[in-house]
């Protein structure tokens, strides 16, 4: 089960729009993907679960995946997070 730690870098953190982008990307992969922040864990297929993590800017999260294409899924999710969810901070 591959895992990788990344830090939330966008100013608004993991909010509704960024969670929606993460869910859409996760659904492209046929594996189970989890995002963990501190002692909370969320299924990346659930926007509500991701938002309940309350992961703000500077929060270190762990991305884990298990199943087909798990390594590619972890890399893609981490790239999205590292890119600030492709948001233009205002």
From TrEMBL:
CDD domains named in the record: PTS-HPr_like
Q: Which InterPro entries match?
A: HPr, HPr-like, HPr-like_sf, PTS_HPr_His_P_site
Q: Answer yes or no on keyword Ion transport.
A: no
HPr domain span: 1-88
Subcellular localization is given as: Cytoplasm
Belongs to which family? Belongs to the HPr family.
**Which NCBIfam families did the record assign?**
PTS_HPr_family
Pfam (any one): PTS-HPr
SUPFAM superfamilies (alphabetical): HPr-like
Q: What is its main location?
A: cytoplasm
This protein is called HPr family phosphocarrier protein
Is Nucleotidyltransferase among this UniProt entry's keywords? no
Q: Which UniProt keywords apply?
A: Cytoplasm, Phosphotransferase system
């Amino acid at each position: 089960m591959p895992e990788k730690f990344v830090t939330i870098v966008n100013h608004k953190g993991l909010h509704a729009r960024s969670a929606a982008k993460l869910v859409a990307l996760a659904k492209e992969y046929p594996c189970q993907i989890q995002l963990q922040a501190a002692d909370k864990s969320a299924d990346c297929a659930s926007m509500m679960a991701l938002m309940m993590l309350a992961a703000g800017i500077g929060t270190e999260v762990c991305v884990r995946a298990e199943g087909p294409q798990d390594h590619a899924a972890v890399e893609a999710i981490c790239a999205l997070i590292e890119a600030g969810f492709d948001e233009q901070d205002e």
